[in-house]
Design a protein that fits this description.
about 15% helix, mainly beta, 4 helices, four-stranded antiparallel sheet, Neuraminidase
């Protein structure tokens, strides 16, 4: 009797495990894709220690200074995971206020206002006199749930990326968690929008997690980071055509920060993971893995990588922190001889002498 009961118990457990791994709802819908070749950390990406000894500027317990902007007076500003707005004067941090939501990309426009891509709230504008204003939070009768980076133009319009139209970072535990879901699904719902006082239009579509964007010095093209495909595009704003200028990166490109001289700092928020590329053609297996505990799913690797490129995608410099001394790197900006490095989750803004 005991042996029969034990065998029945094993059978029930096995049936439940098969049902759970194969058929229980996951809330995601992965599709098959073919990833680019992973060159690994070789060539210009051979590991170095140049980002390993940065100074971490204290943010009074706040974290995640995801982007940085410089105003007309040459003063740097950053935000935090806790929606804080900080002013940076010669490596000294001053808390200015709170914006609400989860601010990501930010950049000052020609009108002196700070434009912000907020992953919870949409496209925002902030001034010291008037505080925060939501410029737009809907597109095509749906909420804008993952605005990511902004690029104000001289004509008063503002380009901004929307990483996904499927995920809701506020409902899914934050931007990092929802980005992992979207990259795992790979459904290419990211796009770039253009806001102006006359309305909102779509500039480019069909990206797997649209991330950093930056205008060229002539403002006739946009550089666009497609995180899920490990590449950077140049989109011609006059013809509407685009071309890949940098492909097969060994990590996930994040922000693209224009330096004003035709070069750009780009963060690779994590190196690539072989398991993700291996499972790319197999959406059913990806669904099964998603049913496993979170601890065994792919997650970002804490290896800091920052690269500098030109407008044609040529790699000019690469800085790394291979042991995660500063990780989840999103981008950087040079200000008065200091390179400030941003991060999705670090406990402060990084600073070092500009290379």
């Amino acid at each position: 009797m005991y042996r029969t009961f034990r065998m029945l118990s094993y059978a029930v457990i096995a049936i439940f495990a098969i049902w759970y791994l194969g058929f229980s709802p996951t809330g995601i819908a992965p599709v098959a894709y073919t990833p680019s070749h992973d060159p690994g950390l070789t060539g210009p990406f051979a590991p170095n220690q140049r980002l390993a000894e940065v100074e971490i500027l204290d943010m009074a317990g706040e974290e995640g200074p995801e982007d940085i902007a410089v105003d007309a007076a040459g003063v740097a500003w950053v935000t935090s995971l806790q929606s804080g707005l900080w002013r940076v004067d010669d490596r000294e941090m001053t808390h200015v206020g709170r914006l609400g939501g989860r601010p990501l990309g930010l950049e000052f426009g020609g009108d002196g206002a700070l434009y912000i891509a907020d992953s919870y709230l949409g496209l925002l504008r902030w001034t010291q006199a008037n505080g925060t204003e939501v410029l737009v939070d809907r597109y095509d009768d749906a909420p804008i749930r993952y605005a990511n980076q902004v690029a104000p133009a001289r004509d008063g319009s503002v380009y901004f990326s929307v990483s996904t139209r499927r995920q809701d970072p506020q409902a899914q535990g934050g931007t990092l968690a929802s980005s992992v879901v979207d990259l795992w699904e790979h459904r290419r719902t990211g796009h770039v929008l253009r806001w102006s006082p006359d309305g909102l239009t779509q500039v480019a579509d069909g990206f797997n997690f649209t991330n950093g964007i930056a205008l060229t010095p002539q403002q006739d093209a946009l550089l666009i980071a497609e995180t899920g495909e490990y590449r950077i595009w140049k989109h011609d704003l006059e013809t509407g055509t685009r071309e890949v200028i940098l492909d097969g990166l060994p990590g996930f490109p994040d922000n693209i920060q224009a330096q004003g001289d035709g070069t750009y700092w780009v963060g690779l928020v994590s190196p690539r993971q072989a398991i993700a590329d291996t499972l790319a053609p197999y959406p059913t297996l990806r669904n099964i893995i998603w049913r496993l505990p979170e601890v065994v799913r792919p997650a970002p690797v804490h290896h800091g990588i920052l690269m500098r490129i030109d407008g044609e995608g040529q790699i000019l410099d690469v800085l790394q922190a291979p042991e995660g001394e500063y990780s989840l790197v999103t981008g950087a900006m040079e200000v008065d001889g200091t390179l400030y490095v941003t991060s999705l989750g670090a406990p402060g803004l990084a600073a070092m002498d500009a290379p």
